Amino acid sequence: MQNKELLTSSYDFHLPDELIATHPASPRDHAKLLVYDRMTDTITHAHFYDLEKFIPKECALIFNDTKVIKARLYGHKQSGGKIELLINRALNASDIHVYIRGRVKVDQEIFFEEDLKAVIKELKDDGTRIVNFFQNTKLLRFEELLPIIDKIGHIPLPPYIQREDNEDDASEYQSVFAQNEGAVAAPTASLHFTPQQHERVCKNHQHAYVTLHVGSGTFKPVEADIITEHPMHSEFYEISPEAKALLDSDQEILSVGTTSTRTIEFYARHQDQTSGEANLFLHPNNKPLRVNHLLTNFHLPKSTLIMLVASFVGLEKTLELYEEAIKNKYRFYSYGDAMLIL
Question: Are strands 180-183 and 235-239 parallel, antiparallel or unpaired?
């Protein structure tokens, strides 16, 4: 019989619609915090502003300093037909991997404001597209594209937040320490920190930053029946010298978010690589080697993220914690509440 922890169906759970957060807690640090201590097998209900009470004294924190770009663009074809394009990631200086809502063919042009246009270079078998962006006739590098889309683009809210983005999202769907542009989804555990709390935590604990540009693959449900058969998406990462020094030491680590965790754990398995493409899939059969404690949000059923949580505490305990969160009306997903695993 197949191990239950490897069956995708084991990671399903029912979530009442009203517990899907469509707006963040205000202020940010007033989100709820469920604390699970593995040593004592106890659950504590708190708020995010209580976080410092629970962080082990000698523990260092690793944050992901990626910055969400305005990756959703609305444009039109030559014919005038409307089209929606979502940037996923830069493959190199000018080839950009995108999702397009609407039919397109190779060499077709899509027009946007600010004299920006995308030219379809390749149609991928999985339905995604490779495009080049031009302003007037100039082929743009990704870093030249960023200030343009910052003017005309939209914050790419996750698909389960069923509303248009608004002005608040430009700051709310961004951590207060976001610095390196390139993500199309926020590292959501980071969204709970106010500037004051982040400053306080950093003053009292060693800390460092990694960068993982979160791609839209983070929302993709696992479709294979057996989780180990899921083709994990890859994302660009970079380990700062300060983070490398911490990770190479025997310092206890609290990873802020699943994205920091994937970065740290990829590095733990490839210590000669401080930047590149990370495609690590953590689950109960591939447990963390370096991260001691995890701060995270509550994730989608059958997602690689709930499986990552199970790599820390096992399937049964993960489902038990989620059941406890639902019973206590915690808010789920990107704008939802947080969980600390000690």
Answer: unpaired
Residue type, 162: Q
In this structure, what token pair is assigned to residue 109?
């042009």
pTM: 0.94
**27 prior amide bond cis, ω within 30:** yes
Q: Which long-range contacts (CB under 8 A, 24 or more apart) does 125-134 make?
A: 127/99, 128/88, 128/97, 128/98, 128/99, 129/97, 129/98, 129/99, 129/100, 129/104, 130/91, 130/95, 130/96, 130/97, 130/98, 131/85, 131/95, 131/96, 131/98, 132/94, 132/95, 132/96, 133/94, 133/96
> pLDDT band at 2, cuts 50/70/90?
low
For 48-83, the DSSP string reads GGGHHHHS-TT-EEEEE-EEE---EEEEEETTS-EE
Exposed/middle/buried for residue 246 (C-beta within 10 Å: 0-12, 13-18, 19+): buried
| CA separation for the pair 234, 229 (Å, rounded) | 15
**Which helix (H) or strand (E) segment is 151 a member of?**
helix 142-152
Cβ neighbourhood burial of 284 (10 Å; 0-12, 13-18, 19+): buried
Q: Are 134 and 140 in contact (CB under 8 A)?
A: yes
* C-alpha triplet 35, 41, 43: angle, nearest 5°: 30
Residues near 125 by Cβ (< 8 Å), separated by ≥ 6? Answer: none
Mean pLDDT of the chain: 96
Contact 105, 216 (CB under 8 A): no
> 38 falls in which pLDDT band (50, 70, 90)?
very high
List the beta bridge partners of residue 303. 221
Domains detected in the chain: 4-68+174-341 (3.40.1780.10), 72-152 (2.40.10.240)
CA–CA dist 43, 193 (Å, integer): 22
Tokens of 10: 């084991």
